[in-house]
Amino acid sequence: MSRRSSSRPAAPAALMLRARAAFGAARALLTALLFILATALSPASAQEAFFEVPSLNAGLPAPSPWLDRATPRSSMEAFQHHGRRGEWDVAAQMLDLSGLAEEDQAARGPEIAQQLYTVLDRKVVIPWNDLIDRPDGMDEMASTNSAVAGMARRSVLLDLLDMNGIDAPLRLNRLKAEGADPVWLFSQQTVQNVGLLYDMYGPTRFERWLPDPLLTEAFWGLHVWEVVFLPILLVVGFLASKWTHDLVRWRARVARKRWRRLALNALCWPASLVVGVTIVGFGTRNVLVVSGSIDALLEPGIFIGYAVALVMFVVSVLDRILDRLVPSGPEALSDPANAATRNMATTVTAVRRIFLVVAVLLATGLVLAQANLFRTLGLSLLASAGALTLVLGFAARQVLGNIMASLQIAMNRSARIGDQLIFRGEFVTVEYIHFTFVQLRIWTGNRLVVPVSDFVSEPFQNWSIEERDMIRVIDLVLHHEADVSAMRNFFISTVQEDDDEHIGPKESAAVRVVSQDAFGTVVRFELPSLNPSTGWDFECVYRERLLAHAHEIGTQARPAFPDHPPLDDGPS
Asked: Which of 23, 133, 282, 451 could make an S-S bridge to 73, C-beta 3.0–4.6 Å?
């Protein structure tokens, strides 16, 4: 009995150990299956790291064992090296000639290699940073946000060239023939497009006439003819631009119709800029095609020139319209009858600023997209768009704030061109509302220039909004025994008899005793005025009349002005 009782408890323990072991094995198997499944579905293994081809350039002689085509960088370096030495038969080994018949590859390969080398030299700034010196082409330094981060690549895009309105890609592909190691070669599509690209960007007819000394390399990868030709072309473009400017300006002066003068004056500077840019662009594309390093700067420069010319033309048209709306300047707009014109003038200036901001942003985006400056010029410091935005935003916060404030003024019309204000204790007229500052004309003729952000943040009185009627206040300190009723009768009768068109509603004229102290009684004379610009003049005239009449009353009867002896400061 003791044996039976001692052996029974061991059975459940053994079963538990067996269950645990089975569970551990199942878990290990499941983990292995999940790992295999994840590996099979991962982007890196979803495709092979090369293109398999039956054969590779069978019509060419066997490449030298010293020819390194294992990585994208080594293939490009080899192509550039042998191209500079004129060894086109070796350079052809870096081309995928599968699109040619085998019997044609040996003859056509060197010719295509020479044409491709010329196209690369003239139109492409080779992105060496993208050409990784690894057989799999994987960029270990790529950002995790990059689409190719941590992935083996079998194709690398060098550039896109315009080919009759179509973007023709220049690529390096990783190819593997049966029984051979993978190599990086220019893709079959690139080879097929070389002929047409060479016709577009290869040497022009004029360049073929140049003597050999001018075709040699000078410095920085430039040819001798480029060092001589480019300065001459820029001078010709400048002179043509100046002559165009003078011609259009002369035609504007002799034009009889107003709309023609308006159009020619607006077209003066844009036309001269377009002519100069067109001459430079035509010369570097059709007369002598420049190298890729120069073209990387000229192409966006030409595009910027056209964009600036268009913006200048539209802004000039808006300026001419504004000049027509304000024929005599802001002084004429300050007249009460020109309230609608003030609104229109301010709206036109707002449209001008909005258009200018939008045009600059669009032109900048188009230029960057067209020229791909971030890649072709190798501006690695600008790779982080977030950091660049923060830096530029912090540096330009004051300018951007002023621009937004100027648009705010134009939209809410708190101050319009021609409005008359009391700003910082000065009577001023708004002359211009620019992007970053407001130009105010003080009544003395001086100009007060205020940053827009300061102008909108400080309170001011606008005497030109809605009703322009106002009361000019004249405060006189009279004797305690002065005859205020006589002064009131004189003031009211004088206002009633005044026929000046700038006098406001005469029933608004009033005389009030507002305060008194030890010196005398303060009497306020309220003079109605229709025009703030002339109200101050009327105030001065009526103050003089009131002082003369008070003096006359004081000489005839009771004193009019306070008469106090000097204050006694006590014994010295």
From this structure: 133
